[in-house]
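Shipment paperwork, digital attachment
Item: protein structure file
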Amino acid sequence: MPVFVREDININYEVTGSGPRVLFFNGSGATLESAALFIGALAQTCEVLAHDQRGLGKTSIPDGPYTMAQYAQDADALLNHVGWSTCAVVGMSFGGMVAQEFAVTYPERVERLALLCTSAGGDAGASYPLHELGALSAEERNKKILLLTDSRFTEEWFASHPSDLKMMRLRAEQAAQPKADEVLRGERLQLIARIGHDVADRLHKVASPTFVMAGRFDGIAPPSNSHEIVKRIPHATMAEYEGGHMFVAQDKLALKDLWAFLSGDSSVQSGQS
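Attachment content:
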C-alpha cells in the first residue's frame, strides 16, 4: 500500500473501487486490515480513499497527545496528496467524530457526509468513554462490551440469534490477538484524543447534505446522540436500524441506504428509509 509523508508521520493509505469519490474514517482501534470487509463493501459502488489514522496500523505512532484537529488535518493533507479537491465523507464511530471535525473545518471539501454510530460530544451527547473499560476486570469488561455493542446481547439473545453470536465471537477472537506495546500505545493515544471530542456548537458549519445512521440498540453512541447531531446540521436527515453499534453488519438495509445516499438518491437524503 502507498505511504504519504506528512510532517512527522508516514500515513498508510489505499484507494480502491470506482464511482463517486469517498473519504472513509475508521473507528477506534480499527485499521485498513481490520476494516477490509466494510471498505470493500463501500468500494462496490464508490472510489474509496481510506487510511490508517495516526497511531494505528502501518501509520506512524508519533508522540502524543493527539487532537481531533490533527486527525482532520491529516486527512486534509492526504486529499491534497491524492489530488482530490472534494469528495463525500463517511465516518464510523470514532471515525464519525473525525468526519465531523473534518466537515466543520473544511466544509468546502465535503460533497456529502454520512455519519454512522457516532456522537458530537458536549451538549449534543458523548459516546461511551471507552478508555474507562481498562479499569474493569476481564469478566466485567467482556460483559460490558457485549451490552455496549448491543443492549440486547445476553445469553438468551444469542441462543436465538446465531448470526449475532458469530459476529461477536469473531470480534472477541480479533481482540484476543496479542499486541506489541507500541501498538497498544497508539490505541491509547487515540482513546485519549477521543475524550476531547466536542463539535456540538460548530455543526452548523456543515454545508453538505448529511445522512446520520444509528443503531436502535447502540450502547456506545445511542440514537439520542444522532438526533442531537441532526438538530445542529442544516441539511441533515437520520435513519435508525435494527442493531447496535455494529448495525451495518446486522441490518441489510443499512448498507443499501448508505450506497444510495452516496450515489445521490434523494429519497434516502430525505430520510425515507
